Amino acid sequence: MDFSKEWTDLNKISFTIEEIRRISPEARLSYYQKLRRQEDLCFVSWAGHFFMEWFAADIDGKHNPNSWILISRDVKTIIRLIEDGRYYDKRDWELTYKELYDQKEFLFNTGLGYEFLRNLYLALNPDKKKNLNTNKNIPKHALTFPKRLGRFLIIFFFAISVGTLSIWLYLTIDAYRNQKQLEAIHSSDNETELLNEAVTKQPEKEIEGDQKTAKDNSPVVLSEYKDALSLNSQLFGWLKADGLSADLPVVRPDNGDDFYLTHDFSGDSNDHGCLFVDSGCKLNPRSNYIVVYGHNMKDGTMFGNIDYYTDPSYLSQHKDIYFDTIYKKGRYEAIATLRTRLLNQDEEGFRYYRLNSYKNENEWKEFMAFAEENLAAGSLSSLKYKDKLLLLSTCEYSQDNGRLVVVCRLKN
């Protein structure tokens, strides 16, 4: 099976998406028109022509801003599938097709993924060149296996050849399911909160979070986080950011800051880890300087989309960052992105990752000098002493021990 044309087009599409992210929405129309005129020269497969139709729909306003993140993920997924399958024969691809079909809803976010499945099916069945509906009518068992004694051995050896792909699919789907479980917990908590408000009307003015206290003056956990806290007592808060495609719990480890690099919210081993803050961060009162750490995952989960914030246009369009502690809600504004690195042990300089709160104006000035020196996008001019900051930190690979950091300021 030869997917070299698709691979070429998909890499061109990936580059094009990065270019489009760097220009304003107003300039996209001109970019689209130029690309459309050169479409036949630029693209040589169904993938390129599908992308052009998708781009046209975006110009017509049929997509939301996050759609570019979703199609970028699908492009990367299909490139990975083609690269992993470059030595497959037809039987390998037949087995792969059936596995992809069963997991298509977990793996693909846009029609590009379904179009890949449709073309893979047609490549495997050239006698069935007909117009299939990409979402519904791709045959699940489109391939017939010979019913003979040797069938088991054939499948066994081909299963070994696609073992690496299966592991990758499992990890991707497992991460997706974990995300859905977390969303279900959060959704359930929100429903509980609404129900409580409907049943118990309070005549006095409501005060939320750590301002509302029990008889012993201890802070009260926000109702939407009680269920999640019962699952993990290390829950610190919850981060939601459309620009990151993130809606995730944040923990404060008491078993070492490295634990959640390799374990999820439930404490199970997981390469995606879990978002976390330093064990020294305070909940009540909330620290005025909080750093949330997360992996820069290739599949776009966790902080895998944080590099989009190096684009000034993207940053300005995705400023809203919601970060609640278990006691109090918080709405932040993303104002700048820093590109920096971890310092060597004997190297002098400001270490943003060692600070849990700034205690005086001198520490504030040190942070501001560091931020100005490492500014990659946005502006720090609106910041002032005593602002409460949230920093979102992940790995960056243009330098050794590189880091990308999105700086956010509390608005409420």
Read across the widest sheet, the strand sequence of neighbours is: 1-2-3-4-8-9-6-5
Low-confidence stretches: 132-162, 191-214
Give the averaged pLDDT, no decimals. Answer: 79
Number of strands: 9
Structural domain count: 2
Radius of gyration, whole Å: 25 Å
User: Which CATH class of the largest domain?
Assistant: Mainly Beta
Shape: globular
Q: What structural class should be given to the helix and strand makeup?
A: alpha+beta
CATH fold assignment of the largest domain: Sortase, Chain: A
Order of helices and strands: HHHHHHHHHHHEEEEHEEHEEE
CATH architecture of the largest domain: Beta Barrel
The largest sheet, given as strand count, sense and whether it forms a barrel, is:
8 strands, mixed, barrel
Give a brief outline of the structure:
Helices cover 42% and strands 14% of the residues. It is α+β, with helices and mostly antiparallel strands. It starts with a helix and ends with a strand.
How would you characterize the overall build of this protein?
By secondary structure, this protein is an alpha+beta fold. It folds into 2 domains: 4-161, no CATH class; 212-410, Sortase, Chain: A. 42% of the residues lie in helices and 14% in strands. It has an 8-stranded mixed barrel with strand order 1-2-3-4-8-9-6-5. A hairpin with a 5-residue loop joins strand 5 and strand 6. The longest helix is centred in the middle third of the chain and has 37 residues, at 163-199. The radius of gyration is 25 Å and the shape is globular.
